[in-house]
Design goal:
Helix content is 41%, strand content 14%. The chain is built from 11 helices and 8 strands.
Length: 281
């Protein structure tokens, strides 16, 4: 097993030399398994995909391995809604550490199984936007949001992920809370255990993030951060992402990710997943 320090070095080197491919959507892959309430831990927990790492780790591991078999370089942990804030909607906030830690372990084990000396596979610790947006929904204090992100980042790191991915971000204030949470946690651990951080946002059909920020405003607000990459995911699909990706590539000095995940089935019930990738500017 390669050490995380060496994996991070390899990840950064790979980004300079080739396009890396992320896995596809976890939610639609889970739907395709036709699970029942008992799989989630009972009727009250049905739909809590994150809890499956505890109740059906075999399912989550199988999904990870399927994406790796298909050629994915990076596997995201099944923790999109893994903050205590979101998990509390299922009364599972107290299990936030176990869920995130276990999810990272499962993804790491799958990647180790498919890694080779000439080609390592990497784990992204997935941190979703939560169900609260400072500028849109309100209902949460800024410091509370920082604490929620802190708890998730800490657990994902302890579980062995190679970098932290704040994805489907909709509000730069939420991103700022996430970055402060990362800074807080990284200040508590040895410097050689610090891992990279990436940010991927969603641009809505009206041309901005849900909170109203344009891609240009986003790039400017994150310019001071030393990110592994910055990119776009979901929302409008690949055909409407081109101009935003082009603008982002011109404005940022770091790697750029394009993750045009379809996420919804067509009229025949077939999930139209498109390749997810990140590439060097």
């Amino acid at each position: 097993m390669t050490s995380r320090k060496l994996r991070v070095q390899s990840l950064k080197k790979d980004l300079q030399n080739r396009i890396l491919v992320l896995d596809g959507a976890m939610g639609t892959a889970i739907q395709d398994k036709n699970l029942i309430a008992e799989d989630f831990g009972g009727v009250d927990l049905e739909g809590c995909n994150e809890n499956l790492v505890l109740t059906r780790p075999d399912i989550i591991s199988a999904i990870h391995e399927d994406y790796l078999k298909a050629g994915a370089d990076i596997i995201e942990t099944n923790t999109f809604g893994g903050t205590p804030l979101v998990l509390n909607e299922y009364a599972l906030g107290s299990k936030a550490h176990d869920i995130n830690f276990t999810a990272a372990k499962l993804a790491r084990k799958a990647c180790d199984k498919f890694s080779a000396e000439h080609r390592l596979r990497y784990v992204a610790g997935s941190v979703g936007p939560t169900t609260k947006a400072i500028s849109v929904t309100g209902g949460i204090a800024f410091d509370e949001l920082i604490e929620n992100f802190y708890q998730q980042v800490k657990s994902l790191h302890e579980g062995g992920c190679d970098f932290i991915l704040f994805e489907t971000a909709q509000d730069t204030r939420n991103i700022k809370a996430g970055m402060l949470a990362v800074d807080k946690y990284f200040s508590e651990i040895p410097k050689d255990e610090v891992i990279p951080v990436a940010v991927s946002v969603t641009i809505e059909p009206m041309g901005t993030m849900l909170a109203g920020q344009s891609i240009e405003a986003l790039a400017t607000s994150l310019d001071h951060l030393d990110l592994l990459y910055i990119g776009l995911n979901c929302a409008t699909g690949p055909e409407f992402m081109t101009d935003h990706i082009r603008s982002l590539a011109q404005l940022t000095g770091t790697n750029v990710a394009c993750v045009p995940n379809a996420g919804l089935p067509d009229e025949n019930g077939i999930y139209l997943e498109t390749p997810e990738m990140m590439s060097q500017v």
